[in-house]
Amino acid sequence: MDYLVLLFGANDAVLPGAITKQHVPIDRYKKNLTKIINHPRIAAHKPHILLVTPPPLDEIKTTPRSIENGHQGAVRKSAISAAYSEVAREVARENPGVILVDLWKAQMDKAISLTPDDYTPGGPWLGDPENGKQGGLDTLLHDGLHMSGSGYQVFYESLKPFIGKEWHGLADDDRKGFVIPDWRELLELKPNLNTGD
Q1: Which residue numbers delimit the SGNH hydrolase-type esterase domain (predicted)?
Q2: Going by C-beta distance under 8 Å and a sequence separation of 6 or more, which residues neighbour residue 100?
Q3: Which residue of 21, 105, 106, 163 has the fewest C-beta atoms within 10 A of its own C-beta?
């Protein structure tokens, strides 16, 4: 195992009592991340550990769904989701060698760039009811919580600088060091191979 990418917290940050039963208290969330990062079976592999903050939450978009499910209001809050992201940042700072991938910041920066007039620096974040505007989060989070294709593109671009450095600068068809042969190599070995079989 060369890399371990950890992304937890988006579901954990749901309020206690939500029908999903996914709530993990923030102090437990921090302990869980620290325990995973330092687990002997993980450490034995000496992977590059990339700790990813949870993405932002579009509370404006998730609240109607919470109400439809029988809750009095939102079961997810933008500020609480942001706090879980801050805890992930703390864990990365407290564990030397852990690489932080700040997905919350990358997603929020992208959302603001898509709709710059919807955010005032220092004001409430996009997706927060105090702001009243979803802005670009509407594009990045298909249901307000889970990433859309555009959101995953931001995630990929955030991970890309930290993964596969051993192949940076190689031509796209150079597969030195690959464990599993490239499909083109298989076709050279077995020209009649149907890769769909």
Answers
A1: 2-154
A2: 50, 51, 53, 88, 89, 92, 93
A3: 21
Dist CA 97 CA 37 (whole Å): 10
Residues 15 and 79: their CA atoms lie apart, in Å, by 12
SS3 28: helix
Rounded to two decimals, what is the model's pTM? 0.84
Using alpha carbons, list the distances in angstroms from residue 109 to 6, 56, 88, 196.
Answer: 21, 10, 18, 40
Q: Which residues of the chain have pLDDT under 70?
A: 167-168, 172-183, 193-197
Dig out the tokens for 59 from the structure.
Answer: 């509370």
State which fold the 3-172 domain adopts.
Rossmann fold (3.40.50)
Tens of pLDDT, residues 58-70:
999 999 999 998 8
Q: Label residue 39 exposed, middle or buried (CB < 10 Å: 0-12, 13-18, 19+).
A: exposed
Q: Which residue has the tokens 């298909």?
A: 142
In order, the DSSP letters of 44-94 are TT-PEEEEEPPPP--HHHHHHHHHHTT-SS-SS-HHHHHHHHHHHHHHHHH
* Residue of 36, 48, 21, 32 whose CA lies nearest to 162: 48
